[in-house]
Amino acid sequence: MPQRHRDLFGEIASFPALLAAARRAAAGKRATRSAAAFLANLETEVLLLERAPCDGSWRPGEYTVIRIDDPKPRRISAAPFRDRVVHHALCAVIEPIFERGFVFDSYASRVGKGAHRAVARYERFRDRHAHVLRCDVFRYFPAIDHAVLKQDLRRRIACAKTLWLCDAIIDGSNPQEPVYRHFPGDDLLTPLERRRGLPIGNLTSQFFANLYCDALDHFVKEVLRAPGYVRYVDDFALFHDDPVRLHEWRARVAAFLARRRLCLHPVKTHVATTHEPSEFLGYVLMANGRRRLPDSHVRRFRNRLRGLCDRLRVGTLGQDEFRARVSAWIAHASHADTWRLRQAIFPEGPFVPSGRPERVRKPARGARRLLEQQPKEPPRGQPQQEQPRQPQQQRRIPAHQCACQPEPARSWPRRECERASRPVHDEQRSAPVLADRSATGAESPSLPPAGRS
User: Fold this and answer.
1) b or e along 261-274 (b: 16 or more beta carbons within 10 Å of the residue's beta carbon)?
2) What is the pTM of this model?
3) Counting Cβ atoms within 10 Å, is residue 216 exposed (0-12), middle (13-18) or buried (19+)?
């Protein structure tokens, strides 16, 4: 049984903790209206915010919903700035408690981790194993069950006020995309009675999503004992040399997720070989160690760049914001082999890529191993397997070249062998025959081979 922590609320709702949380929440957002209004009366706002959780009157505010359709429909929820301060104060205290129990290969929303390190870890396991099981949880954030999440929080937290604050944030989630799924033991109305879904955009939602799949991480590591495993939020991969074993693990993982009221995506979950190109966290990973961006990703950025340029031209977008948005994409693309792509998109101006184009990387160990298993060509000088001869294209001789011009002596045996191995046609049977070389004792001039004009 893990250790349960008590008396945590004083570290969350104290004035110094809330003041530090307000500064962290305002980092990079001081120009927004809500952050500027809060920071204008910082001490007063923090004092009011300190009293509300202590007397139990704090309630989450109304979310601002932003709908996006590219690359797929999503609902991004932005909490009020006062609520974001409470989220930062809460996560600063309870996140280190659960961080100790997270596995090494969970890379989302953790200090020292991230998407780029997850991609590098994926490539490392890919080079060691022959097959991979790619999995994705179907509608992860809208499908997170509130009752299961609260039970996970109570495994390590025993402070009643801290649990009340966590429950208030979870219960204050705005309605998400409906996910109606029946699991073993459910009746007809169970999906309608249970509350589900966390708002995408909250700091607490990222932490709760990591915590919700922590049980899956330990199941894969400790029960299945997978030799290779990487997870980033709801996208994870298991590696092994035996595809049959991976298909067995797929069924066991699906059964385990069903107990947590989740299910695998029916299309994105599959078993594949590691030498095939695979898309993971926004990159297409090649077996030879190269990375590139998906075509859809590049197409979306080109369209977005045209819109940004139009807004910059009419004056609705500032230079600093334009540079920040373009630089964010360049920072992401620079982790792949995209020097020539960036050179094509930005042929001139401040975003021209510096340095030289990327060199071809050496094949990784797994790629070399797979290449060694393929049939090799025999070395030069050794007879190769006989292949069906293809009809050769006739070569034209320029008119100024004399037909009786002698060829080099060293090329005569090769020419003679080619004529001997060439099938005899009707027009070749009627061609004049050269005199025997031994009759004259000298090398006779070379006539054009049969079939030439």
Assistant:
1) bbbbbeeebebeeb
2) 0.76
3) buried
